[in-house]
Here is the input.
Amino acid sequence: MNPPADRRPRFAPAQRRAHRATAALMLTCLATAACLYLPPLAQLVGRRRLVAAVHEWSGLLLPAPLLLALATRAMRRDAVRLGRFTAADRTWLRTVRRRRPGPRPAGKFNAGQKLYAQWTLGTMLVMLGTGLLMWCTGLAPAVWRTGATFVHDWFAFAVAAVVLGHLRMAYLDPEARRGMRTGAVNRAWAEREHPQWAERD
Here is the structure.
């Protein structure tokens, strides 16, 4: 079904499902990590083995929604967009850093969204690798597992902070949330926030 004339398509169903599944798995990983790491929460929740199992399997499944969505053309096109920085992205970052008012050049994704996507993919790989070293004790010597635990723990704090920032930005932009929920956005919003995408696509 086509969106109304004042709205334009932004995300395909597979992309929206992948986003929801990734969000659910990421929040599950963070919640279970908090229950494993923070003594008050650990005592409140109990069932440490079950919480650890949920944490481990959620972490292993975390890349699955993205990999499945990459079977669609829409997701592959957006993956290329998210991985490519342009002159407009550098201008966008300069205007944000200098807090200049007014419109900022952006394609379908602005530079902040591209950095967030790249950070998420990178940390997902780091967390998966260090998690496997911690989980499968026969894979590496004890000193590697100690290092993996250190990296995993500190990256978890960083991931929690960045996810909170992402949620805050989504809360402040209801039209962006609507686009992820319904697949379409208001044309005026697209022209204001992503003018190059509004003009070309």
Residues 7-200 form a domain with the Fumarate Reductase Cytochrome B subunit fold (CATH 1.20.950.20). The first helix runs from residue 13 to 37.
